[in-house]
Amino acid sequence: MTTNQDQTTQHEAVEVEATVPEVIVPLDDATFKQRLAATIPHLRAFGYSLCGKMDLADDLVQDTMLKAWAARARFRPDTSMRAWTFVILRNCYISQMRRNKFTAPYDEGVAERTLTSNSDQQAPLHLEDVRMALMQLGEDQREAIILVGAGGFSYEEAAEICDCAVGTMKSRVSRARAALLAMLDGDSPIGTRRQRNSADEAMSDILGTLDRLSEGVTALAA
Amino acid sequence: MHTSGFDPLVMRQARIGRSLREAYDCVTGSPLPDQFESLLNELDKISAPVGSR
């Protein structure tokens, strides 16, 4: 049985816990640097998905690393370094966008070189299409689908990174999925481009057949 | 009539999801430019801002 005195003591304990500021013990520099280095590949992928240019993405990552290093005392060791640095990278991107550093949304040449996969001969073309479709999404939807669909973040983590409500994040991901599906299934510009390629190939086949037929006619005439 | 039991829409969404991850993994799996190794080596020389630690 709980007495009034016990309840009072518990209540006071809760109040004390609530008023004592939480002490964050920062990582030592070597450990921080090690964990920061491990996030670089992910930062590059996220940066590239935001700006569409690998060289600019690398600049973004470098700025992010410098800012993260300067703020390393504020990093909580019990949280995700990847999520923390993604927030920094996203802020860098937004501030550089405001300065109009990122003017070209998509670099097809870089995308082709970057996204070429050796394992499947069909994959490079498809990945290029996915990449192009991604760049046609609005920024909000693009970062949402990259974080949740590719980066492996939960809706909650992605919402925190993008500074929005979890419901908003779910909605963005859902709309991004629907838009990608429409584009890659042929209802939108990317699909139209693929259909046009098929039409070009069909026309090429017809012209080739005509060439062979005309060669036959020429041979018969000779 | 035999049906496969797979919803085509779900299959297409899964394919796109897989491609998204492949696109992401292609970047994460690509070799890091030398500039990052240099930057990591330089970090020790950069002290934290006054009052941040």
UniProtKB/TrEMBL annotation, chain A:
CDD domains: Sigma70_r4
Keywords: DNA-directed RNA polymerase, Sigma factor, Transcription, Transcription regulation
Domain RNA polymerase sigma-70 region: 40-101
Gene3D superfamilies given in the database record: 1.10.1740.10, Winged helix-like DNA-binding domain superfamily/Winged helix DNA-binding domain
Domain RNA polymerase sigma factor 70 region 4 type: 128-180
A single GO cellular-component term on record: DNA-directed RNA polymerase complex
Entry-linked Pfam families: Sigma70_r2, Sigma70_r4_2
Bilayer-spanning residue ranges: none
NCBIfam families: sigma70-ECF
Family: Belongs to the sigma-70 factor family. ECF subfamily.
Protein name as catalogued: DNA-directed RNA polymerase sigma-70 factor
Organism: Blastomonas aquatica
Taxonomic lineage of the native organism: Bacteria, Pseudomonadati, Pseudomonadota, Alphaproteobacteria, Sphingomonadales
Automatic annotation (TrEMBL), chain B:
Origin species: Blastomonas aquatica
Protein name listed in UniProt: Anti-sigma factor NepR domain-containing protein
InterPro entries: NepR (IPR041649)
Any Pfam family hit: NepR
Domain Anti-sigma factor NepR: 13-45
Superkingdom of source: Bacteria
